[in-house]
Amino acid sequence: MNEKLLSRRLQMVASYLPRGAKFADIGSDHAYLPCYVCLQDPTATAIAGELNEGPFQSARKEVESNDLSARIAVRKGDGLSVLSKDEVDQIVIAGMGGTLITNILEEGKDKLGRTSRIIVQPNVDAKSLRKWFVKYNYQITAEEIIEEAGHIYEVIVAEKNDTGNELHYSERETLFGPYLMKEKSPVFKKKWIEEKAKRDYVKREIQKAANPDNDKIAALELEILWIEEVLKDD
Description:
It comes from Thalassobacillus cyri. This is tRNA (Adenine22-N1)-methyltransferase. GO terms for molecular function: tRNA (adenine(22)-N1)-methyltransferase activity. By secondary structure, the chain is α/β, with parallel strands linked by helices. The chain has helices at residues 8-14, 32-40, 53-65, 98-107, 126-135, 171-176, 180-183, 186-207, 214-231; strands spanning 22-26, 45-50, 72-76, 90-96, 117-122, 138-148, 151-160. The radius of gyration is 19 Å and the shape is elongated.
């Protein structure tokens, strides 16, 4: 993969950045996403943040090789620490676990004053991100789910809620995604068939214990019921 031939997953993420975006890509790795966006849109600018030395140097080389150093700043640091307050309008965090992305947002929330849109692509545990968005008044405005190279990915887009109305998502919406559970795409159904099988297995294993955790079993049974219900054709 290079900046001109981006993965479908990252192309989907990029599609939610507006023209003239002023964004940060946190955990940018080789800076493929910022390079792709800035090559497509001459009005876009970006900050590529990377914690580890190897990917940081790779990102610098990628930006320099595309003659984009004037529009993409490559910075080394942990999470949103690479940003100054109110420095960007959009933030992208892709390709990490949902819990890690949530922690990055939580630890760097003081940098989000001006940020109107956050685009995340968690590899697992999207639920924790949906909860975080509600807590900090970001409304989910779009969700996507795709399968690529044998993996299923979700993309969640959230925007600062300026309506004055309090945000609320049900436990089911938090688990499945408010948009995804309505659309029920084939990839969505495939994911939750697999997730149900995992929960069934865990439940059976817990039940084998000498002192099974009944609270855990009850929680699993509830989620299994929700999955069965959401997979039913309307």
